[in-house]
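Quick one, tokens below:
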């Protein structure tokens, strides 16, 4: 039997929002910057993040919440376990994620097939590209 896993993280904003929609829940995107000018992020030094319903230019400073916390919220509030949705913690074998990646045909996000009897882990190159390696045994 073959197992399917996804490599190529991180997910883009659209991928995370679509994953949530397909999974049956809503996410609220917040950003830890109050202003962008010429591609530079200017941070909000009063330790708050703001609700950001618009698609951002990139994921820099983006935090997803499982709950609507209002227009502006303290940073430590959004990082509480009951609020934060961490897209990096999505199971790489999640069937919804696999179908999403297959449909998207992104050149970086890929579905990799691995035989069931192989122990594996995900590694990352110096440039940030992910690949799957088989686990090997070692002895001292």
């Amino acid at each position: 039997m073959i197992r399917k896993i996804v490599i190529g993280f991180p997910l883009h904003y659209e991928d995370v929002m679509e994953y949530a929609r397909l999974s049956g829940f809503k996410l609220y995107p917040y950003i830890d910057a109050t202003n962008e000018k010429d591609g530079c992020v200017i941070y909000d030094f009063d330790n708050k993040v703001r609700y950001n319903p618009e698609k951002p230019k990139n994921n820099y400073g983006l935090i997803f919440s499982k709950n609507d916390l209002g227009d502006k919220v303290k940073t430590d509030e959004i990082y509480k376990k009951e609020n934060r949705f961490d897209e990096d913690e999505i199971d790489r074998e999640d069937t919804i994620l696999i179908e999403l990646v297959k449909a998207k045909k992104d050149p970086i996000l890929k579905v990799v097939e691995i035989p069931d009897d192989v122990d594996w882990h995900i590694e990352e190159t110096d440039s940030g590209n992910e690949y799957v390696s088989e686990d090997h045994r070692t002895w001292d």
